[in-house]
Design brief:
This protein is an alpha/beta fold. Helix content is 42%, strand content 11%. Helix 9 (254-273) packs across helix 11 (282-298), helix 11 (282-298) crosses helix 13 and helix 17 runs antiparallel to helix 18 (416-422).
Amino acid sequence: MRTSRAGLAVAVSVLVAATAPAAATTPDPLAPYRSQEVSWGTCPFKQRSQPHPVQCARITVPRDWAAPSAGTDLQVAISRAAATGSRQGAILVNPGGPGGRGTSLAGALAGLEPTVNEHYDIIGMDPRGTGQEGGTDEGYVCRVPLGRLPADDDLDARDRSAESIALHQRTPRVLAEACQSDALAPFITTWQTAHDMDLIRSLLGDGKLNYLGFSYGTWLGAKYASLFPERAGRMVLDSSVNFEGRLQAAFEAFPKIDQRQFDRVYAPWLARRFPDQLGKTAGEVKAKWEKLRAFFKTKGIPPDDFDSVFVGNGSTRQWMTGALILTKGAAALDAAAATPPPAALRSDLDRASRAVFGRPADRLTADDVAADPPEPDYADVPGTRLAVACGDQPTRTASWYKLLSDLQGPAYPLFGWAYGLSEACGFWSDPPRQQLPTLSPAAAKNILVVQGEFDPQTGYEQAEAAARAAGIPMISVADSPFHGQYAVSGNSCVDDLVNGFFLGGKRPAATICPGVPLPGEHQVYPVPGPAGEPSRATSPAPRDARSSVRERLQDDISAVNRGR
């Protein structure tokens, strides 16, 4: 039988395929990361107020997810408060920053919200660049040469002379240069961390990643959902930046929102709680504040440092620290005997005094405050905040920020003069390596935003703009001046709505919850603001056994998000 030419060709091709060696298979560069086993063990940090011990582990991630075979691998620390009942999945939590460590946050939240922990593992993470909480790994640290920082200890951003402006801009320039000199800087970004989060989801064996993020953590969660929309589960973004816009805009809004909180909420509260020392009206308190600013300058506290105490004033401890400085200063300035504080505030004031100044409140004096003012140490600066804030998106220039200072100073003197002269992103020269997308409608449908009306660290308008742009409902908290609402503020309206959402209920519609009374008070004093009237009647929140835990956690969240 004759074989056709076509048949011969087929026969030859089959023979060659059968006898030729198999083509080499290109190995998957991500396989070693996805196949690693998570070895849970003890945590290196002290565990407080938790129903059961939290376990910790370290996982290996590529330095660069865009080129996983290049460069030295990194380690990311994670923690787990395992579900106490029928497990439905995991909720990854992040306290913000950028640069906040979240491994201890998992256990604290599990203790505060046991009904959620019954069905979910609460997973904490110390994001890339932050090292390990409680451990010896410090992470990505910028080595700042102290000799290049301004030696002038009398800095006052209200001084608009060329010399003053140059001195103010020296520190952010040195910080930016020190942080960018580290080869790791380009790989400490939200884009990279979001990929780390997806690896954590995979290693946990979950198809979806549920999430709770505070402050910058709202940006991180939203960008995860933007990059991995099909893997994003139920997500709660608390105290939100505008995740559909520019991350740096959240910091640029600090002068406005700090001034608003100080003028409308903090000064009136000081007048109600300390009328004999500071004044009986908000106006009198502000006048006294100016006198004390000048007084402490004579004690060696630079005006900029004095102002900074009241910037990002988003937690009970920060409120108490400000009150201590003002009342102790007033006693010295007026040469009067110290007036005993209100009984309802004594324990809060004493805790803050011991934590910040190292001595009981009744023994604290203005000289003690001046001898040991709360200020940062710029010798060894954690770099994650700058690498992320300045590296996620293109930055403005230093001259742009100086102009912003000129514009914001007269309107928002508390921080408006200083902010634009202190922003290191103005000196950041490295362009972003990846672009961060906005949310798709599919990803946005499982997200809920929560926001306090007078939050001084993430502005109400920022959160509102993001929620509106993405079509996401927002739970607003009327009259709240603090940073962080869910689980940490003792607000049952917020907690019930968020818990119901996490536990499988329908996503809540837009709601305005009432605020809770301010420290030392038993009623809410409503203040006109951008949120409007609450949807429910205001009722005081009784102090319970977990109130101190909430306050401590809110203090921690606020501290990592102050932006200074």
